[in-house]
Every structure is written in structure tokens, then in C-alpha cells.
């Protein structure tokens, strides 16, 4: 290697990481939004204000979609932040907020759709089990969201391989691994992505802290594997 090799695999460079994070976070926001909306819908039913609640909800969804899908999303968000006397978010922050908003709307559609279909099936007596299967699927979205967040965290990695310093640097969170502590590297490649398993030496039986698995671009995995082989 002629110099440090850097890579970034996160929501800004990997669509899979981005989608998993958006749907995971969006599920929790969707559940909260549905609970609040349903509570307000029931309360306003006593005074005939349900149409207003539905209208406000629809307007919010349309507004979020228009802002999120606009070519000038950053400008709109910055203007909103200034009007609320808030600190202007970074481009990365805006991107994360947009992903979370779109994920929330998508999961509101999924969970809300399951609840509506379940209620209709129950009222019409179309299934002997009633709304049970649809309620189960809606509830299943919570553990699936947790799995999505865990996967997005596992698949995300940002770092640098510095051959001159003999070190592997990981960022966000920051970690430092001396290459001399690595005995071997095994690589499993899936398209342009590779899962790297790091094997650490145990000098005098001492445990060496550091990541045991990384998900990196395939070319980075080959560079690391070749570097470890040459140092053995």
C-alpha cells in the first residue's frame, strides 16, 4: 500500500445501512404517532372533531413528504430552524432527519394498514380468529425494528488502515488496533462487501481488546488481508 487506506460504510454510502436505520427508527416513531393520533381521534369523537384530526394528520404527512423529497431540503430545514431560533443542523443531521421521517411515514402506512384491515375483518366476521393475525404482525414490527437497528449498527464501519504506523483505526466510536496484535484475517465476500473476522494474538494469555468482526468494502478487506499476511 502506498498510503493510508480509508473507507466509510454508513448511511451516507450504503443504501442497506440507510434503509435498515430508517425503518428501525421509523417504526418506533410510527408507533408513538399512531398511539397519539388514535387517542386524539377518540377524544375528539365526543365533540365531532375527528375530521379535523384526520385533516391535520394528513397535512403533516404531505408536508413532511414535500420537504423530504424536495431538492432544497437543507434550505427548508435551515429556514425552519432559524424561525424557531434553533441551531442550524448539519447536512448529515438533515439527512438523518429525512431518513427517519420517511421511515416513520412508511411504517405508519404498514402498521396502520394492518390495524385497519384487522379491525375491518373483525367487524365483518371474515375470519374466525378475528383481528388476531393482523394485530400480531403489527406488534411484530417492534422486535423487527430492533433487529434492523442492530444490523444497521453491525454493517456500519468507518476507518483507516495505516501501514506505516502499523495500525487499524476505527472511527465513531474511535478504536485503535495495532496490526502486530493480529494473527490472521478471514474474509467472506458478498458482492462488493466483505465480512472480516479478525484473529488476535494472546501474548502471555492476555486478552487483546478490539473488534472481532468488521463489515468493509471488498477492496479494503483484501488490502487488510494482504497486509496481515506480509507481517506474519
SS strand fraction: 15-25%
Number of helices: 6
Helix-strand category: alpha+beta
The count of β-strands is: 7
| Subunit arrangement of the protein | single chain
Largest sheet: 4 strands, antiparallel
Percentage of residues in helical conformation: 55-70%
Overall shape? elongated
- End-to-end separation in angstroms reads 16 Å
Strand order of the largest sheet: 1-2-3-4
Q: Uncertain regions: pLDDT < 50 for 5+ in a row?
A: none
- Average residue-wise pLDDT: 86
Radius of gyration: 24 Å
- Supply the number of structural domains: 2
Sequence of secondary-structure elements: EHHHHHEEEEEEH
Keywords: Membrane, Transmembrane, Transmembrane helix
How would you sum up this structure, described in words?
Keywords: Membrane, Transmembrane, Transmembrane helix. The chain crosses the membrane at residues 20-41, 47-69, 100-122, 134-155. The chain has a 4-stranded antiparallel beta sheet. The chain contains 6 helices and 7 strands, in the order E-H-H-H-H-H-E-E-E-E-E-E-H. With 232 residues, it is an alpha+beta fold. It folds into 2 domains: 11-153, no CATH class; 156-231, PH-domain like (Roll), CATH 2.30.29. The two termini are 16 Å apart. It has helices at residues 15-44, 50-68, 73-83, 91-124, 132-155, 218-231; strands spanning 5-9, 157-162, 167-170, 175-178, 182-190, 193-200, 213-217.
Amino acid at each position: 500500500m502506498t498510503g493510508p487506506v480509508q473507507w466509510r460504510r454508513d448511511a451516507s454510502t450504503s443504501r442497506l445501512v440507510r434503509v435498515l436505520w430508517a425503518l428501525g427508527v421509523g417504526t418506533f416513531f410510527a408507533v408513538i404517532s399512531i398511539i397519539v393520533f388514535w387517542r386524539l381521534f377518540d377524544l375528539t369523537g365526543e365533540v365531532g372533531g375527528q375530521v379535523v384530526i384526520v385533516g391535520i394528520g394528513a397535512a403533516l404527512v404531505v408536508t413532511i413528504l414535500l420537504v423530504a423529497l424536495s431538492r432544497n431540503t437543507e434550505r427548508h430545514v435551515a429556514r425552519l430552524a432559524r424561525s424557531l431560533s434553533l441551531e442550524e443542523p448539519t447536512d448529515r443531521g438533515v439527512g438523518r432527519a429525512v431518513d427517519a421521517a420517511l421511515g416513520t411515514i412508511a411504517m405508519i402506512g404498514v402498521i396502520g394498514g394492518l390495524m385497519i384491515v384487522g379491525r375491518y375483518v373483525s367487524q365483518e366476521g371474515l375470519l374466525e380468529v378475528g383481528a388476531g393475525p393482523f394485530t400480531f404482525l403489527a406488534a411484530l414490527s417492534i422486535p423487527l425494528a430492533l433487529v434492523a437497528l442492530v444490523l444497521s449498527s453491525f454493517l456500519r464501519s468507518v476507518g483507516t488502515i495505516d501501514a506505516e504506523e502499523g495500525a487499524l483505526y476505527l472511527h465513531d466510536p474511535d478504536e485503535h488496533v495495532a496490526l502486530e496484535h493480529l494473527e490472521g484475517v478471514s474474509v467472506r465476500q458478498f458482492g462488493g462487501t466483505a465480512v472480516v473476522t479478525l484473529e488476535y494474538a494472546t501474548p502471555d494469555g492476555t486478552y487483546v481488546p478490539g473488534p472481532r468482526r468488521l463489515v468493509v468494502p471488498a477492496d479494503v478487506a483484501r488490502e487488510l488481508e494482504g497486509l496481515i499476511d506480509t507481517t506474519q
